Amino acid sequence: MNRKLERRLVMFGSIWQIVSGLLTIFVYASYIKNEGLNSSYNTLARLEAAQSIFGSLYMFSVSFGMLFVIMGILNFVLAKTLKDDTAEVKKPIWFILLGFGSYIVMDLLGALMFLSAGILALAKNKSISKMGNYQF
C-alpha cells in the first residue's frame, strides 16, 4: 500500500510552514522593527522603552519564524522517508501532534494538512498490518 497521499499532504504542509516562517521573518518582523524605529515619544526614556519593546517583539518574531522554517525542513525530510508497505508508528503520531500544535498557534492550513496525513497514515498502518498477517 503506497503512502503517496500522506507524502503529498506532509510536503504541502511543510512547504507552507517554510513559506509562513520566511514571511514571518522577512515581512512581519521587518514591519515590527520599522515601527519601533519610527516611533516618536516626547521623552528619551519613553523612546528607549518603546524601542526595547519593539526589539523584543522583533526577536520573538524572528525566533518564531525560524522555528517554522526548521520544522518545515524536518517535516519535508520525514515525508521523504515515509516507506510504502511498512507500518510506520512514530511518524504519524508526530504528524498528529504537529497538527495539534499548528492548531494551537492558529496555523489552520498546517493543522489540516498534518492532522489529515497523520490520521491517514495510522489508518493505513492498520491495513498494512492486517495484510501482513494474511500473506504467506
What does it look like?
The mean pLDDT is about 90. With about 140 residues, this protein is mainly α. The protein starts with a helix and ends with a helix. The chain contains 4 helices and no strands.
Gist of the model:
The protein is an all-alpha fold. The protein has helices at residues 4-38, 44-80, 90-104, 108-134.
Outline the secondary-structure elements.
Blueprint: H1 4-38, H2 44-80, H3 90-104, H4 108-134
Helix pairs in contact: 1-2, 1-4, 3-4
List keywords for this structure.
about 140 residues; mainly alpha; 4 helices; rod-shaped
Strand content: under 5%
Number of DSSP helices? 4
Indicate the overall shape.
rod-shaped
Biggest beta sheet summary:
none
Low-confidence stretches: none
What is the gyration radius calculated from CA atoms?
21 Å
Number of strands: 0
- Note the run of SSEs as H and E: HHHH
The chain-level structural class is: mainly alpha
Distance between the termini: 17 Å
Whole-number average pLDDT?
90
Helix % is over 70%
